[in-house]
């Protein structure tokens, strides 16, 4: 039997009795302890095997299998898992008592039968898109390493280990978070699918916050159909897929900001993807979206991430700042002296900005952009050069963070040709348009295959 292509395929084979969940989980655990070892900060082998065993017994008994029955799912070290500590990639939280209950998102995964394989590596407190963490070795991007073994490249962040766990086969899907692109960046850099739903769709209880205004609990997968499956579990809802022929979709490519300074490999893959979609019958307009040029001035006085993270971290920073990643502490401290008036002004300005963006894009079903403007940068230089690090981080966050500020939804899917550097195509729209976006993403995935 050939290996399953994705989570949905594995579930189908399990339901047919063509494989066992126990065999699948042993393969995943071997990878988690082998090639994906750096992707994990702790392993949940016993409970993963237990969930797989329960799925096998249910199938043998003829019971219907839940949607994630015995399937290997990794969890970002930001979400509570009962019986395990949650450390958010930080030394500051080492020694923290184990969680007594699951985070809301984890509880939904468990109810769907997921075999949780471990907590994954991440940027400390989820505060960058690079994936760098000085407290634990960053896993190299396994997809680019296969293309060029001489130059290890970043996995992307902050859900770095989450993406690596999926790319290496240590998990079929990964629970992570997205505050400014932390799901979509690593997914794009590793040729995976990352869906950022409308933030309010999935509860954040039991998840260490970065910015409650922008934080989104969501998943990295191998396919769009897996993204739908994971979203239905995490959001506890059924996606309404309203299929339609290509000429009835109206799509737009915003020229403002999103196409600035694209690396040649990204530009080539993006343009080739647009050509393929047009050949399939898609109607794609290029538009100006001047509101995107306002983002720097909008956040000139303060950002949601700085102000809201300072609120959570101020007591820890007062006593244990020396144990933080200095780059993370530096960004959190930017919220220290922000007046309440500036924070309230930012909230009001954001609401006005959202209204204007939605008015300008109202005639379109979705917008198309490169997920990030570059391929995965080399790791070398990031550790010792702050200028390189912050320039790289800003570049990675530039495009995806637009959607978080919009309070919208977005999905990245690979658009490069086999053998090329991984490049992500981002489809995005305003709030509560998740179902149409997922439907469209399925059609795009098929057109690009």
UniProtKB/TrEMBL annotation:
This is Amidase. One of its GO terms (molecular function) is amidase activity. It is an enzyme of class 3 (hydrolase). Pfam families: Amidase. Its EC number is 3.5.1.4. It comes from Caldimonas caldifontis. Residues 24-438 form the Amidase domain. Keywords: Hydrolase.
């Amino acid at each position: 039997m050939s290996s399953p292509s994705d989570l949905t395929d594995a579930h189908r084979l399990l339901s047919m009795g063509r494989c066992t969940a126990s065999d699948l989980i042993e393969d995943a655990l071997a990878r988690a302890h082998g090639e994906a070892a750096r992707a994990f900060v702790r392993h949940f082998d016993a409970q993963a095997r237990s969930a797989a065993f329960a799925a096998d017994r249910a199938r043998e008994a003829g019971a219907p299998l839940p949607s994630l029955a015995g399937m290997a799912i990794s969890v970002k070290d930001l979400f509570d898992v009962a019986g395990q500590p949650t450390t958010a990639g930080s030394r500051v939280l080492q020694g923290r008592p184990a969680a007594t209950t699951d985070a809301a998102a984890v509880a939904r995964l468990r109810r769907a039968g997921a075999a949780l394989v471990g907590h994954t590596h991440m940027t400390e407190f989820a505060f960058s898109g690079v994936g760098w963490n000085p407290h634990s070795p960053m896993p190299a991007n396994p997809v680019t390493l296969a293309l060029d073994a001489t130059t290890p490249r970043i996995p992307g962040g902050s859900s770095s280990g989450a993406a690596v766990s999926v790319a290496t086969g240590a998990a079929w899907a990964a629970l992570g978070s997205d505050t400014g692109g932390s799901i979509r960046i690593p997914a794009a850099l590793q040729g995976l699918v990352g869906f950022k739903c409308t933030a309010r769709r999935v509860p954040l209880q039991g998840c260490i916050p970065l910015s409650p205004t922008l934080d989104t609990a969501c998943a990295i997968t191998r396919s769009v159909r897996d993204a739908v499956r994971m979203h239905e579990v995490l959001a506890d809802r059924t996606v309404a897929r309203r299929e339609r022929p290509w000429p009835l979709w109206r799509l737009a490519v915003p020229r403002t900001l999103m196409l600035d300074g694209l690396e040649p490999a990204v530009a080539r893959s993006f343009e080739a993807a647009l050509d393929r979609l047009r050949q399939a019958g898609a109607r794609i307009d290029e538009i100006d979206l001047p509101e995107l040029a306002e983002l720097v001035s909008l956040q000139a006085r303060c950002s949601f991430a700085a102000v809201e993270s300072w609120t959570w971290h101020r007591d820890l920073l007062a006593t244990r700042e020396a144990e933080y990643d200095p780059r993370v502490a530096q960004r959190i401290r930017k919220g220290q002296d922000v007046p309440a008036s500036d924070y309230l002004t930012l909230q009001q300005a954001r609401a006005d900005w959202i209204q204007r963006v939605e008015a300008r894009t109202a005639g379109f079903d979705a917008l198309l952009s490169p997920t990030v403007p570059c391929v995965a940068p080399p790791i070398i230089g990031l550790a010792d050069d702050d200028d390189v690090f912050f320039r790289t981080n800003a570049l990675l966050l530039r495009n995806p963070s637009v959607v978080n500020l919009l309070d919208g939804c977005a999905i990245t899917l690979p658009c490069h040709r086999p053998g090329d550097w991984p490049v992500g195509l981002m489809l995005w729209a305003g709030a509560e348009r998740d179902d149409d976006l997922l439907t469209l993403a399925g059609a795009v995935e098929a057109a690009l295959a």
